[in-house]
Amino acid sequence: MSTTEQPAQEPQQSVVVQPPVDPELVRQLAQRAAGEGVELAGPGGLPQRLTKQVLETGLEVERSEHLGYDKHEPASRDGENFRNGTRAKTVTIEVGPVELEVPRDREGSFAPKTVRKRQRRLRGVDERVLSLAVKGLTTGEISAHLADGYGAEVSTDTISTITDTVIEEMSTWQDRPGSRVYPVIFIDALVVKVRNGQVTNRPVCTAVGVTVDGERDILGLVDRARR
């Protein structure tokens, strides 16, 4: 007696269906966002967390350069001066106040250039951070942006180290997960200044999504000249 083998059936995958968004809610969200503006460099625009990351990255790299060793290196046990935690500091930039954790050393001799002692207001930081967040910039262009902010007071090796760390931070921000539903998406373009030997104006495509709660989320900044 012969038997017929039945082909194995693959288990069916469950499909999650998102409930439809009320068209009236979409209309209200669009009107509200358009009325408030979706600028990237103003309050509620480019996340201040990104500015905080860039500034704190520069501060930590500067402290490592000052002490002569990186975090968790054995050299920290041999030197007379070493890391001594951080202290809170609020600085004001164009997008508003930013809470920073400023690194300290035991001797108190660390004098950072990223945010100087007793400095409370920084100018032009939002423009540089916005430019750094654009996908498509080369390592050389990012390094030039940072060098422009520090001037001649920081060595090229330090700028290179800060650049590598900032690129890693920016990649994490660019690849972060977003909301599953954006009832409203604004597509626009803006012009940012890119420094690489000389200053040039570069068109950047922007996409800003509005969640069902009315919060704005930057979905992407892409350098059109690189596409």
From TrEMBL:
<dbReference type="GO" id="GO:0003677">
    <property type="term" value="F:DNA binding"/>
</dbReference>
<comment type="similarity">
    <text>Belongs to the transposase mutator family.</text>
</comment>
<protein>
    <recommendedName>
        <fullName>Mutator family transposase</fullName>
    </recommendedName>
</protein>
<keyword id="KW-0233">DNA recombination</keyword>
<keyword id="KW-0814">Transposable element</keyword>
<dbReference type="InterPro" id="IPR001207">
    <property type="entry name" value="Transposase_mutator"/>
</dbReference>
<dbReference type="GO" id="GO:0004803">
    <property type="term" value="F:transposase activity"/>
</dbReference>
<feature type="compositionally biased region" description="Low complexity">
    <location>
        <begin position="1"/>
        <end position="19"/>
    </location>
</feature>
<comment type="function">
    <text>Required for the transposition of the insertion element.</text>
</comment>
<dbReference type="Pfam" id="PF00872">
    <property type="entry name" value="Transposase_mut"/>
</dbReference>
<feature type="region of interest" description="Disordered">
    <location>
        <begin position="1"/>
        <end position="22"/>
    </location>
</feature>
<dbReference type="GO" id="GO:0006313">
    <property type="term" value="P:DNA transposition"/>
</dbReference>
<keyword id="KW-0815">Transposition</keyword>
<keyword id="KW-0238">DNA-binding</keyword>
